[in-house]
Amino acid sequence: xxxxxxxxxxxxxxxxxxxxxxxxxxxxxxxxxxxxxxxxxxxxxxxxxxxxxxxxxxxxxxxxxxxxxxxxxxxxxxxxxxxxxxxxxxxxxxxxxxxxxxxxxxxxxxxxxxxxxxxxxxxxxxxxxxxxxxxxxxxxxxxxxxxxxxxxxxxxxxxxxxxxxxxxxxxxxxxxxxxxxxxxxxxxxxxxxxxxxxxxxxxxxxxxxxxxxxxxxxxxxxxxxxxxxxxxxxxxxxxxxxxxxxxxxxxxxxxxxxxxxxxxxxxxxxxxxxxxxxxxxxxxxxxxxxxxxxxxxxxxxxxxxxxxxxxxxxxxxxxxxxxxxxxxxxxxxxxxxxxxxxxxxxxxxxxxxxxxxxxxxxxxxxxxxxxxxxxxxxxxxxxxxxxxxxxxxxxxxxxxxxxxxxxxxxxxxxxxxxxxxxxxxxxxxxxxxxxxxxxxxxxxxxxxxxxxxxxxxxxxxx
Length: 462
What we know:
The chain is an all-alpha fold and about 450 residues long. It is built from 22 helices and 2 strands. It has helices spanning about 15-20, 35-40, 40-50, 55, 75-100, 105, 110-125, 135-145, 150, 160-165, 170-180, 190-195, 225-235, 250-270, 280-290, 295-300, 305-335, 350-365, 370-395, 405-410, 430-440, 445-455; strands at about 240, 245.
């Protein structure tokens, strides 16, 4: 078993002043004084994300339903904006609590708005690493290396930890990679990066603790382990196991914002599409609203969409209040590292949210349009990985098989794709990560279009 670096041994509680560090891995020394005064470091994080190409690409990536036969159906981009809005509310409200409880925060220049900005930025980026076709896309990439001949052909050339990464594609870890990459990373603050990382561990660990939510998935690939170690050292994050870290407390708010939005808004979309009746939707939301619900006021709205919008807003507001209360109650345990659950699992409305989740699986996530989209995603991503992986393998590792077809395929890779210094004596893990970056970064439409072309199903201009 790996030993814990001495510098990272957890000797006590985390502290908020250290956790809210505004430093970055790479400081831009060219900032003018007006730039540093007009925006906080955390507001700059938000702006960097929202103007980035990977974030813009989310406008054409699936949230749940295929894109976009209906203009009201959520994409990854609209979902991320909504999660960020809820995250800001959660962060601001808990920030009011924290700056009152810890006077040192105000003395060091930290305000509740700063805490809201951190959560908003991390929540805005929470899906930035997701591939085309949603969770089906994640499974398709993993399945390629687990089951396809031109996927597992790479296994002899990489380490066991690297192979575990390749066989378990994770959107959260891909997101961290995109945010910290030396070439194209957004160079966010330490606090925002840590709040983004809901699963602060690598893919391969000695032992998972099923009672810790942060162990459920993983948050960084092995080639970015050092970046997370440095981040943990700077912020004072302790270890939950030799290979894993305690969550940054604000990561619980990012998770809650996501849980609240997809639970309520996926249900709203399902109702709008006719997969769930309005009466059933109303019953589920009223269970959360309780005495706040007034049928008479709802009756003032004429259309179903108007009624759904009002119910959604009220329900999200109620869940925000409950999540803030839960955070404040558990905050000291978070600093100790002893609390590791989803906030939405311990709020008063937890049982109602579980009912919504069960119904959503039955009637929304397993509906015919969603299943058809997932099936297409498997076919498209496997097909793209197959043709590019085979061509790279033939060019560098099985050179006797390298063909004119392979040459043609490789010309479709981005101009900056690293095509030098590979071969049987070189570990291809960085090469494969670049290939996965290329394919996972595609929009749904571009992935489908390119798949049709490389498979000869469609020709340019025809």
